[in-house]
Write a structure and sequence with these properties.
Layout lengths: L8 E5 L3 H13 L3 E5 L2 H10 L4 E5 L7 H10 L6 E5 L4 H10 L3 E4 L4 H25 L3 E4 L2 E4 L5 E3 L2 E3 L3 H12 L7 H8 L10 H13 L8 E4 L3 E4 L3
Parallel strand pairs: 1-2, 1-3, 3-4, 4-5
Antiparallel strand pairs: 6-7, 7-8, 8-9, 10-11
Helix pairs in contact: 2-3, 4-8, 6-8
Length: 237
């Protein structure tokens, strides 16, 4: 089981010292143990020496930028929750962060209360994922020619192996547990991310697009269908 808020170690990667100091003080008051890095290189060094329970990562930082820091953590196999900060509310920035492996994003300027809520949600989701991994150990979920091994965390479309990020794995597992059932957006967000995003957020759409790209990489038929106005469903055409 992961650390509670009184124990959890949060790494803030932010070169704006005023923002970093304010967030550090606020999170410390909430009971978190907090460390701060002002550059991408420093963040990777700190993570290598002592991997935190969660990373709050600004995109625009000196040296190695936040996207590359995120990619390197994921490439190293690290499953730490990453909350990306972006100064612009641009779809391209949000998509880039999610594609790099971030679990969530927050646009500056932000309310501290929302930052804390998202941190709590990501930590809860991590703990739930750890519990589910133990319960599902050794299980293989199947639908049509699609399968998901909960031990190796690899998917397969026929004989073709599909490498999945943590969030892609969680999303695919949810669909495989409920085949032919239309899952509303808010249900998916709650089960996979731990809470619902604002209505204008397209984080789910980004992940569905990525998952489809992986599942259909060799021209396979579409299994993940959109039900307009209702949600998504795993089923054959």
């Amino acid at each position: 089981m992961g650390a509670t808020s009184e124990q959890a170690q949060v790494l803030i990667v932010e070169d704006d010292r005023a923002i970093a100091s304010a967030v550090r003080r606020g999170l410390a008051f909430e009971g978190y143990r907090v460390s701060v890095a002002e550059s991408g290189g420093q963040a990777l060094d700190l993570a290598r020496d002592n991997m935190p329970d969660l990373v709050v990562l600004d995109i625009m930082i000196p040296g190695i930028d936040g996207l590359e820091v995120c990619r390197r953590l994921r490439a190293a196999g690290e499953d730490v929750p990453i909350l990306m900060l972006t100064a612009r509310d641009e779809v391209a920035d949000r998509v880039a962060g999610l594609d790099a492996g971030a679990d969530d994003y927050l646009v500056k300027p932000f309310a501290f209360e929302e930052l804390v809520a998202r941190i709590r949600a990501l930590l809860r989701r991590r703990d739930r994922r750890e519990e589910e991994s133990l319960a599902l150990n050794g299980e293989i979920l199947r639908y049509d020619d699609l399968s998901l091994d909960t031990t190796t965390r690899f998917g397969h479309r026929g004989a073709r192996r599909i490498d999945l990020t943590t969030r892609e794995f969680d999303l695919l597992m949810l669909f495989l547990r409920h085949p032919n059932q239309v899952l509303p957006r808010d249900v998916i967000m709650e089960r996979v991310w731990g809470y619902d995003f604002p209505g204008e957020s397209n984080v789910l759409e980004v992940y569905v697009k990525n998952l489809r790209r992986l599942l259909e990489a060799d021209g396979e038929s579409r299994l993940l269908q959109t039900v307009r106005g209702a949600g998504y469903v795993l089923r054959r055409d």
